[in-house]
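Propose amino acids for all 84 sites.
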């Protein structure tokens, strides 16, 4: 088993063991710096806004991120979609 896969599985299980939103916030704050947490929260917001059909430029402007950041999010979503 790849070491990284083992550690990722451990991380997932650690987070899944949290029972309340407060416990999850605490776990995330213990694991991540403030900037890492903000970056992940922004990435989630980018995904949600893209799925709502909001234009990339508007997302970048509203979240104060670069267009390349939004484009990376768009590519990540498209790579997970089944081929037609």
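Proposal:
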């Amino acid at each position: 088993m790849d070491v990284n896969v083992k550690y990722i599985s451990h991380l997932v299980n650690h987070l899944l063991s949290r029972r309340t939103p407060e416990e999850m916030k605490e776990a995330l704050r213990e694991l991540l710096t403030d900037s890492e947490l903000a970056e992940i929260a922004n990435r989630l917001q980018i995904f949600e806004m893209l799925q709502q059909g909001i234009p990339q430029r508007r997302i970048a402007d509203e979240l104060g991120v670069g267009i390349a950041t939004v484009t990376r999010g768009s590519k990540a979503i498209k790579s997970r979609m089944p081929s037609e």
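The mean pLDDT is 91. The chain has two domains: 1-31, 33-84.
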